[in-house]
Task: structure prediction
Amino acid sequence: MTEVPADHPRHDSLVTRHRIEEGVDRGITSRQGLIAQGRGEAFDYLLGERTIESADAAARVAAAHLLSARHPVLSVNGNVAALCSAEMVDLADAVGADLEVNLFGRTDERVRAIAEHLREHGAREVKGLAGDARIPNLSHERAKVDSDGIYDADVVLVPLEDGDRAEALGEMNKIEIVIDLNPLSRSAQVAAVPIIDNIIRAVPTIARHARELRDSGADLDALISGFDPHAARSAAERAIRGSTDDDSSRSPF
Ligand code: ATP
Result:
């Protein structure tokens, strides 16, 4: 990987971009993943490449859902694997969740490559290889999930997900936590908990909140019932438009 000087003003963004390039070279990330990355970068630039207060609050509620779940599952696609495998493994440990590889453009080869990559980053068990159940109302390959994984889950974290699949999962009455930098994307719109933040910041934030909530014995139900997803999306949109009361330290316009 090309060395990016630590004091480069776009350091984090460039490192992230290189990780996606590397993911494509290793057969983990699809070429469409490059387009998704570009779209994400644009929104992150407008947000000021920081975690806004409303996203931090949403991450805390996400942690509460994952801790209270009967069967939480963290869904991993090619961009997620390239960007934050170690962090996803750590979050799975923190909340006792399964990790499942779940791809829009599923090929068995890519599912295996991602599962292997997760194991190299400390995962013990990775689901997604069986693909023996289906999400209703989706075409064949996109619908495949594991019967003892996402199919059975009550709470699912689906970062950087395509809108159709996010919608179809929601229709299965699962509580969906979405990480997406675009507050207007369909996935963010259908999520019970939309976290409008870069995944490389959001996943460690959820894990930190989860450990803190668990250790402090906080009232998880109160946290969950006090959350308003619409308000979280609106706060992010205001921050992006630069007319924010949600810490307006950097106006993009
Ligand atoms: P939808 O169907 O939900 O409207 P979409 O068609 O835009 O979404 P994709 O093209 O798959 O879906 O884009 C993936 C989404 O992931 C985009 O909304 C993009 O902003 C977001 N995204 C990309 N990279 C990141 C990242 N690093 N962190 C968070 N979100 C990201």
